[in-house]
Specification:
five-stranded mixed β-sheet, D-Maltodextrin-Binding Protein, domain 2, alpha/beta, single chain, 32% strand, 3 domains, globular
């Protein structure tokens, strides 16, 4: 039987961002309506659409060899899996998601210890209980099936909820008391699969391509012609990711300079490069960076 890697793709909010990251990495994942088996243009990968909350458990049990899920769900399910790498992307921004302890704006609660004997609603029951135990607090922690932000103060004294921007919390008149956990998506693998040489290499290749795409985000390449006499001045302007590449041209008095820079600074440095002596400046897109 041919080697196949069973890969879990997170459903719901992380589904499209994950698929987009894989597409940029060269893996075309296609979803079909009402199907939990996405197709992928790699015959050595078999995809399964799984809730992020359940991913780590299925990877631990060997139902999946590998998958993408949040670090928070690895912690919440106490799954014994290997976290291969961190993938800093999300449904809203490139900021990590945060699980935060929140109370109504007018609550007297100022810290976690003020919740002794109180009721807390959350989707991450185990994570919350562990956090309370760490601070020596005993409280009633109940699972929330959704709309957690609207439960205080009538249905709960506090909540532990996930946020990226905090806008939903503010809209529901809640304030953050403390941060419980910071989380980012991770590529995880089953321990047995990690000992299989073929699967280990396959996962490592996926890791390499995903990280290369993330490393290239927000960066562009610049190439330009520079007189040798002006080279030091031009290089001094470049906030290079690495030392710029300088190549000889047919005319010995000129060189070709290549550099990778943050896209956000291009509009600031192009006039300076031209003033320093750069000519024929070209900006080009970068899809991957591999160190």
């Amino acid at each position: 039987m041919a080697n196949v890697l069973k890969l879990g793709v997170p459903s719901a909010s992380l589904q499209e961002p994950t698929a987009e990251l894989f597409r940029r990495a060269g893996y075309q994942i296609t979803f079909s309506t009402r199907s939990y088996y996405p197709s992928i243009d790699d015959p050595e990968i078999d995809c399964l659409l799984v809730r992020a909350q359940e991913m780590a458990r299925y990877v631990e049990q060997g139902v999946l060899d590998a998958g993408v899920t949040g670090h928070d769900w690895v912690v919440e399910t106490d799954a014994d899996v290997e976290e291969v790498c961190e993938l800093v992307y999300s449904k809203v921004s490139r900021r990590p998601t945060r699980w935060v302890l929140c109370v109504p704006e007018d609550s007297e609660v100022q810290g976690v210890r003020d919740l002794q004997g109180k009721r807390i609603a959350t989707e991450v029951v185990n994570l919350t209980r562990a956090y309370l135990a760490k601070h020596g607090v005993t409280a009633e922690v109940e699972f929330s099936w959704g709309a957690t932000e609207v439960k205080p103060p009538r249905l709960a004294d506090a909540i532990v909820e996930v946020t990226e921007t905090g806008s939903s919390l503010r809209a529901n008149n809640l304030r953050i008391v403390e941060e419980v956990l910071t989380s980012t998506p991770r590529l995880i693998v089953n321990h047995d699969s990690a000992t299989d040489s073929w699967k280990r290499e396959k996962v490592a290749n996926i890791e390499l391509m995903l990280k290369a795409c993330l490393a290239a985000e927000g960066k562009v390449g610049l190439m330009m012609n520079v007189r040798r006499a002006d080279l030091d001045s031009v290089v001094g302007v470049l906030p290079a990711l690495q030392t710029p590449t300088v190549s000889a041209l047919a005319d010995d008095e000129w060189v070709d300079v290549h550099s990778i820079v943050e896209e956000s600074v291009v509009r600031l440095i192009l006039p300076k490069l031209k003033s320093a002596g750069a000519r024929g400046i070209i900006e080009y897109a970068i899809s991957k960076i591999i160190d």
